[in-house]
Every structure is written in structure tokens, then in C-alpha cells.
Amino acid sequence: MLIARSIGLFVLAAFLEIGGCWLVWQGLRAHRGWWWVAGGAVALALYGAVATRQPSGDFGRVLAAYGGIFVAGSLAWGWIADGYRPDGFDVIGAVICLIGIGVIIYVPRGR
């Protein structure tokens, strides 16, 4: 159950961070206006709050593992929101990152 909660938090954090960055991108690069940028700032602040809810208290380890979710999530977001189609190498890279998450955050360690 703890791993499922952790994965859910990683996915929610990715949605907020990638979505927030996308909103800022749309506001500034696509000239959609400052309301989009403001929405992105709110989403990014919420991302930071969600990241603190991870069961592990090791900041560096949590953020390192989250990086893999960010990579895979960014490719998925680009595919869904912008029509970018990841190629085979994108998918292989994302899978490697997701395997890395498992090693970094979920492998038991003796303390």
C-alpha cells in the first residue's frame, strides 16, 4: 500500500509540474496571456507541496526518483497535449528511467 501511495503521489506531482510548465509555456510562447502563466505558477506551487507528501523523507532520493516520472510523463504529456509522437528511443529511454525509479526509491536498504 505504501508503494501504491508513493507512485500515486509521483504521478500527481508529475501532472502538476508538467502541466504547470505547459501552462507557462502556452502563456509566454504561444501568447495566450498572463492568466495561463498564473495558472502555471499555482500548479507548480502545488507540485512542490505534493512532493513533500512522499513517505520517504530523503529529499535527494525522492527528487532523483521523481526525475524518472518527469521524463516519462513529459513524453506522455507531449503526445496527448501537443501531438508529439515519441519514437522508439524515447520509449526505451523512458522505460530505463522508470526502472531507475524502482532501484532508487523502492529497493530495501539496511539502515
From TrEMBL:
<protein>
    <submittedName>
        <fullName>YnfA family protein</fullName>
    </submittedName>
</protein>
<dbReference type="GO" id="GO:0005886">
    <property type="term" value="C:plasma membrane"/>
</dbReference>
<comment type="similarity">
    <text>Belongs to the UPF0060 family.</text>
</comment>
<feature type="transmembrane region" description="Helical">
    <location>
        <begin position="34"/>
        <end position="50"/>
    </location>
</feature>
<feature type="transmembrane region" description="Helical">
    <location>
        <begin position="91"/>
        <end position="108"/>
    </location>
</feature>
<dbReference type="InterPro" id="IPR037185">
    <property type="entry name" value="EmrE-like"/>
</dbReference>
<keyword id="KW-0812">Transmembrane</keyword>
<feature type="transmembrane region" description="Helical">
    <location>
        <begin position="7"/>
        <end position="28"/>
    </location>
</feature>
<keyword id="KW-0472">Membrane</keyword>
<feature type="transmembrane region" description="Helical">
    <location>
        <begin position="62"/>
        <end position="79"/>
    </location>
</feature>
<keyword id="KW-1133">Transmembrane helix</keyword>
<dbReference type="InterPro" id="IPR003844">
    <property type="entry name" value="UPF0060"/>
</dbReference>
<dbReference type="Pfam" id="PF02694">
    <property type="entry name" value="UPF0060"/>
</dbReference>
<keyword id="KW-1003">Cell membrane</keyword>
